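Marked as duplicate of an earlier ticket. Keeping the data here for the record.
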Amino acid sequence: MTFNQIKMAVYATYLTNIYGLKLAKVSSNIDKKRLRTDYSVKMLKSLNIDIKVINGDKLPLDGQYLVCSNHRTIIDPVIIEVATKDNPIHGDWIAKKELYNSFFFGKFVRNAGCILLDREASQMSEFFKDIKKCVKDEKSIYIFPEGTRNKTDSAIAEFKEGARIIAIKNRLPILPIFIRSRANDILKDAIKDASVPRVIEIEIGNIIDYKDKTLSFEENYKKQFNL
């Protein structure tokens, strides 16, 4: 590991835990969004990565949504937070159990406004109950429908059924987002050398009605972004 990589790892750990503590002290949805945004902006600034939003005018200005994005890197939530930082829509991220227990992310994830997904649980009733409560509190839900990071050469991996089920059960229109750049490669290069400015492009799609059965969710997503 190079000196730059060590320095970046130390700073990222410090920043993540500091904001984990800050998030623990606030309870309102707006304050959590503000702190998550502030954290995300600082994290990308340290990497010298800028976010370019394509079709930003498609972002709705009100309402609740199931916000869905493809997933390639550990900073994808950060990318989406920055891309939507000036938008009033806010909500909770679905986070797997491993992140809750992580030394690096644990404190942040537990306090940032996240819904725990325990894939080893025998029953998923608690998970769906937490989602129902989030929606009742007038918040949106953020999810990666692929279920885990896509490490293949394909633009997206196969979507899991969970996202569609959540949308239908909670009557949430779907807001599709596509991280168009190879963010994993950009992140690796930025960690090695943050002196070079880099750009990640993110594209906003058209709202998908949760009742729409003309195409599957995955097919609709692919069609919108020409995948």
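See parent ticket for discussion. The mean pLDDT is 91.
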